[in-house]
Amino acid sequence: PAVAAVMRLGTVLGALRPALPLLLGLSLGCSLSLLRASWSHGAAEERCLAPGRPARPAPGALPEEAEGGLGPGHEDFKPRIVPYYRDPNKPYKKVLRTRYIQTELGFHERLFVAVLTSKATLNTLAVAVNKTVAHHFPRLLYFTGLRSTKVPHGMALVVHGDERPIWLMYETMNYIHQHFGSDYDWFYIMQDDTYAQAEQVKALVTHLSINQDVYLGRAEEFIGGDEQARYCHGGFGYLLSRSLLLKLHPHLDSCRNEILSVRPDEWLGRCIIDFLGITCVSQLQGQHYHTYELAKNTEPEKEEEEEFHAALAVHPVSDMTLMYRLHKQYSRIQLDRAYQEIQDLQMQIRNLTALTPAGEAGVTWPVGINAPFLPKSRFEVISWDYFTEQHLFSCPDGSPKCELSGASKADVSEIIVSALEQLNRRYQPLLRFSKRQLLNGYRRFDPTRGMEYTLDLLLEAVTQKGHSHVLAKRVSLVRPLSKVEIIPMPYVTEATRVQLVLPLTVQDLDYVANFLDMFAMNTLDTHDNALLTLLFVYHPYDAQRVGQVDVFAGVKAMVGELEKRYAEVKIPWISVKTEVPSQVKLMDIVSKKHPVDTLFFLASVWTEINMEFLNRCRMNTINNWQVFFPVHFQEFNPALVYRGEQTASSSTDFLRDGHFDRHSFAEACFYNSDYMTARTKLAADILDRDEVLESMEVFDVFLHYSGLHLFRAVEPGLVQKYALRSCNPRLSEELYHRCVLSNLEGLASRSHLAMALFEQEQANST
């Protein structure tokens, strides 16, 4: 029996062995929980109270029952949901939102700059200020009492009508408060004989708090006044905060009547001190306002003092040449600092990379620039473009060889010069290199890092003793992507009415029904703000027989049915007789029949209109700023792609069996006013040679005769079914060639074409 009991116990333990860790874990967890509960209970009973402090209320008592309460700093805040309630007796008012979110949140622009000038220096020193630092400041205005007959171009000027210095300062402060007091946080006031380091001034205001009344500049003592009071010297510029300007404005009239002074900066400083009790300071919140006073006959290139290098403002600047020399010197100083900072960062990157698992092998070249893009398949490989000093072997028009000119030639010349400078900097004084010839050149654009170059140079190397030797050397260079900037764009909305223009020829009749059905379903049924105008292009032979047989009679009947179905909709049409349906000539006719503020969408009969694209047409087209030429998605020929199989229709196959047709410029979004402006310039250029219009499209008109941005981008909302386009041989050779290429590339992909040829060969062999 004992042996049997032992065997049964072993069997039970064997069955429980897999669950043994779980049982031990549960037991240990329960034991620790009991111990923790006992410790917490014991700690709760031991109360350590400060003398005179009331005891804590008993458990379960309400806060109001506690003697003395918890105090104002220990309230137990709980979220409370306030239900929305609108009085039905009061009329409903629509909430008007601001155009920009920063307006609704009360954000202000950072810095406004005012330059005090005069009639005598407006065309000299003020112009020098405008050319050196004006483009660095977000907003800059020039203030003067009187102006000369000729105002410099590109300068925003405010004329007060009086040259008296105190009056000029008084009117300037009033003007700034009235027009910009609620828009900016900081106001920097300087004279036209002051050189200010714009980037340093902008960096200064980013480190100052806007919650204080700030009067910052070069502090100077009043003549015969209080030793504690200081005013900011106007020659070196000074900074005012928005809060100080708002407090000062009510007292400006009193200051003008009560304070007598010859200098405008002393007058302003006395006004701020007397009515606000704020004196000028040269240091605030850990930031220093460094200045430098120029002596006569100073040579900026020879100034090596630390005070000169750290200065935010330099005064006095006597002439334009000195202003430009100062700007050149300070630009060189800033550039040297930037290069030194880059070298320090590169050294830190090398030191830190050595501690990583990859070690020194993880350091990319150049140090601090992103590593080259690594393709995951052969379709992602970025190709190199081959070039020499005279020719480029990857041309925009697809030709195998073209002359190197324009920006490409300047780019190649600059990169060769840079390569020689780097080689000489590295090997001098032992060797000095000069270029004999560029043997081979390669470049490619890597979107992760910038433009990459590989140059095979034939060089002549000269030693210190004068011995020369010709050698070939390969160098690699990178032009990295610089700081990305957001381009400010004018405000547009999606409420603009879109006027669709559809030119139709006899060859398009088979596709009109589908276009009208999609237009009715996606715009008329959804009440989208879009209208349609049809343009019937008659051949001269068809135009003569229109009384007997109208080739567009079926289309007009379909339009009549739509107008009956939608009583509020009218679809006008325009009839045109021509042998060569030039896009520009047709657009000229339509443009004259619509207002100048009309937003046109020039469509093709294969276009399937939808609300998504119409909204993008509205947002991407900006009056007097930008036109939009979408690249539609062209589906392949289903007979070649599917070869009798069922067409894929699932959402995962969207935009799969087709390509974006970059050869087509048939679709375009633009404003009528922009087209009329560009068309006027074109008419003045070609005079009466109307045959030139047959070789142009609307895209060419905007490209060559307007200063607008041309936005050309792929548009997934424009999907066109496969159709063999008819290419008119009467058009120009370029337009006809593009049409043929569009048809050929729209047949199928290379793999589909190869499979079709393979099946055809198999069928022929059997």
Automatic annotation (TrEMBL):
<dbReference type="InterPro" id="IPR008428">
    <property type="entry name" value="Chond_GalNAc"/>
</dbReference>
<feature type="compositionally biased region" description="Low complexity">
    <location>
        <begin position="51"/>
        <end position="63"/>
    </location>
</feature>
<keyword id="KW-0808">Transferase</keyword>
<dbReference type="Pfam" id="PF05679">
    <property type="entry name" value="CHGN"/>
</dbReference>
<keyword id="KW-0325">Glycoprotein</keyword>
<keyword id="KW-0472">Membrane</keyword>
<keyword id="KW-0333">Golgi apparatus</keyword>
<keyword id="KW-1133">Transmembrane helix</keyword>
<dbReference type="GO" id="GO:0050510">
    <property type="term" value="F:N-acetylgalactosaminyl-proteoglycan 3-beta-glucuronosyltransferase activity"/>
</dbReference>
<keyword id="KW-0812">Transmembrane</keyword>
<keyword id="KW-0735">Signal-anchor</keyword>
<comment type="similarity">
    <text>Belongs to the chondroitin N-acetylgalactosaminyltransferase family.</text>
</comment>
<protein>
    <recommendedName>
        <fullName>Hexosyltransferase</fullName>
        <ecNumber>2.4.1.-</ecNumber>
    </recommendedName>
</protein>
<dbReference type="GO" id="GO:0032580">
    <property type="term" value="C:Golgi cisterna membrane"/>
</dbReference>
<feature type="region of interest" description="Disordered">
    <location>
        <begin position="51"/>
        <end position="74"/>
    </location>
</feature>
<dbReference type="GO" id="GO:0047238">
    <property type="term" value="F:glucuronosyl-N-acetylgalactosaminyl-proteoglycan 4-beta-N-acetylgalactosaminyltransferase activity"/>
</dbReference>
<dbReference type="InterPro" id="IPR051227">
    <property type="entry name" value="CS_glycosyltransferase"/>
</dbReference>
